[in-house]
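Field reference: "sequence" (input) and "structure" (output). Example, PLIN3 protein:
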Amino acid sequence: VKEVADLSLVSSACDVVSAAYASTKESHPCLRSVCDAAEKGVQSVTEATASCVLATLEPHVAAVSEYAAKGLDKLGEKLPLLPKPVEQILSDTKELLSTRVAEVKEAVSS
């Protein structure tokens, strides 16, 4: 999970979602109270079950973690977008589209 979260694409996407969530909470006081209550509930449940579940499943988690790390490495080789932040991917895509549109315009005008 940490390796996935550390990927630039995932990390920057989480930052964007987090900023939107925080902005929404600030803009709408009614939603803020609902979100705060939901956050506290999730935190309580997580704290109550995490230590028990992790202790029981620790050997299995270690094996799955090893396979997941290998899978992420292979995925990273095949998808060069993963280490890039969302902003860079959007910028690169806009640049590519702009170049292609200019090429099409030039071809049509010729």
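The first helix runs from residue 2 to 6.
The two ends are 53 Å apart (CA to CA).
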